[in-house]
Amino acid sequence: MIRLAILVLRALCIGHLSIGSSLAMRAPDMPPLPEVSISGHHTSDYTAKQNHPTSYVSSPSFKGPLKASKTIGYSSSEVSLRTRLAQYVAENDTNLPFLRKPFRSASVTSPPPLVASERPSTQMILNAILQQLVAHNAPIDAKEVMESTEFYLSLRKRIGAPLQIVDACAGHGLTGLLFAAGNPGLQRLHVNLVDAREPASFAVLRDLMTDVCPWIRDRVTYHAQPIQEYATSMRDKGTSRDRNAPTAVIGTHACGSLTDEVLHLATEALEAASVAVLPCCYTGMAKTVPYGVQRAHGVAWAADLRRSFWLAEQGYHVDFACIPSEITPMNRILIAEKRKMDKYTAQNKR
Ligand SMILES: C[S@@+](CC[C@H](N)C(=O)[O-])C[C@H]1O[C@@H](n2cnc3c(N)ncnc32)[C@H](O)[C@@H]1O
To answer: Which residue intervals make up region (Disordered) (predicted)?
Structure first.
C-alpha cells in the first residue's frame, strides 16, 4: 500500500515537473525594454519614495476635506457640483470643521494666517484655504475646488518637492496655487502657471490664499501665453535656463491634444523630472492606436495607453491614478516620473 502511494506521488511529481518545464520552454521571452538614457533630474533625487499605491482604483474615496456624496449619481452630482463653492457648502451637508450647525454664511470668517515656520500640516492648510474661500464667496465652483484638491492630494507625495512646478493650461490656477501652498518649507519653490488667457478669478484666488498662506507671495507667476510659445521660449533659453531646478509639470483637463502638448512641453522643452496630466475630451485622440485596442478598451483608454507608451519611450516610469469619479468621469491621471534605473531595467542591461 505504502509502495503504491510512493509510486503515485512520484508519478505526480514527475508529471508536474514535466508540465512545468514544458511550459517554461514554450513561454515566449519578455520583450526587451526600450534602451533609454536617464539624464537630468529624476524624482528620486529630491524625494524619498513613499506611499505609492499598490493597486489601481478607478474611483478612490475623497482624500480632501470637501467631499461629494457617494449616493448621488454622476449626472445629478455634476449639476450640483457646478455651484459656486460658498453656495454649495451652504446647501449641502459638507461636514467641514469650520462650519457651525445650523449653517449660517455669516458665521464663516477668515481664518488667521498660518505661519510657515510652525510647519502647518497639509490638512490645516487645506482647511484654512477652504474656510477662506467660503468666507469670501470666492469665484470658483465646488467641482473645481474638489478637482484641484483631489489632484493635489493624489500627487503631492509622488511628484515630491521639486523646485519648479509648471501648471500648464492652468485656467483659474487653483491647482498650481495648492502646490505652492502645500510646500511652506520649500523656500526656493516657484510655481509657473501658463495659459493662453489669464482669467480674472486667478488674482482673486491668489490674493485670498496669500492671506492665509503668506509664503506663496512671490512664489507664483502667471504667464498669459499659449503653452507652445512658452515651450519655445524655454527651448530658446537652452543652457541659460535653470537646469538645476528639478521641474514637475502638471496639466488638468487640457482639452484633447492639448494634453499631448503638455507632455511635449514637459519632456522636451523642460526636461521635467515628472509630469502628471488629467486628460479630457478624447474624441480623435486614439486615431493612431490599432483599431482592436480601441474596440477592446475604448477610445479613452486607448488614447491614454498610447500616451503611456510614448512617455516610456522618453525614459519615464509611467503609472495611472484616479480622482473620485463623483467629481468628473474624466478622472484618470497619467503620471510619469524619471527615476533612477529600476531593478528590472538594471537586470536586463546586465
Ligand atoms: C478646460 S480648461 C482647464 C483649466 C484648468 N486646468 C482646470 O482644470 O480647471 C482648459 C484651459 O486651457 C487653456 N488653453 C487652451 N488652449 C491653450 C493653449 N494653446 N495654451 C495654453 N492654454 C490653453 C484655456 O484657456 C483653458 O483655461
So the answer is: 39-60
